C-alpha cells in the first residue's frame, strides 16, 4: 500500500513539473518547501555544452575531457590536478552522463526526438 502511494505521489509531482527527488543533470531545485521547482543551472549547462563540443567536434574521449576540465579547475584554484580516481568534480562517468543529458536537451530544444542511447555516450 505504501509503495502505491509513493508511486502515485511521484507521478503527481512529475505531472505538475515539481521536484520529487534530486534535480536532473543541468538543473537545480529552487524555492521554498511546497513551492520547489526545477530551473536550469546555466553554469553546469555551459560545461555540458563544452563536453558535447569537445566530444563531437574534436573527437575527444571522456577521459581526456575529464582531464582537461580538472586541469582548468586546478589552475583556477591554484592547485595540482587530481588524478582520475581522485576527488574530481567532473569524473569520466559524470562527463559521459553530462554528454547524454546535453544531447537530449539539445534535441528537445530543437523539437527533435532524443538521440538513441547505445550506452557508450556515442548518441
- Rg over C-alpha atoms, rounded to the nearest angstrom: 17 Å
- Whole-number total of structural domains: 2
DSSP helical segment count: 4
- Name the average pLDDT: 87
Report the count of strand segments: 2
Based on secondary structure, the structural category is: mainly alpha
Q: How large is the share of residues in beta strands?
A: 5-15%
> What coarse outline follows from CA principal-axis ratios?
globular
Oligomer: single chain
Helical content class:
40-55%
SSE topology string: HEEHHH
Strand order of the largest sheet: 1-2
List the uncertain runs.
none
How widely separated are the two ends?
39 Å
Topology at a glance:
Elements: H1 2-15, E1 27-30, E2 37-40, H2 42-56, H3 62-76, H4 92-109
Antiparallel strand pairs: 1-2
Helix pairs in contact: 2-4, 3-4
General description of the model:
By secondary structure, the protein is mostly helical. It folds into two domains: 2-38, no CATH class; 42-109, no CATH class. Helix content is 50%, strand content 7%. The chain is built from four helices and two strands; from the N terminus they run αββααα. The protein has helices at residues 2-15, 42-56, 62-76, 92-109, and strands spanning 27-30, 37-40. It has a two-stranded antiparallel sheet. α2 (42-56) crosses α4 (92-109). It starts with a helix and ends in a 14-residue tail after the last helix.
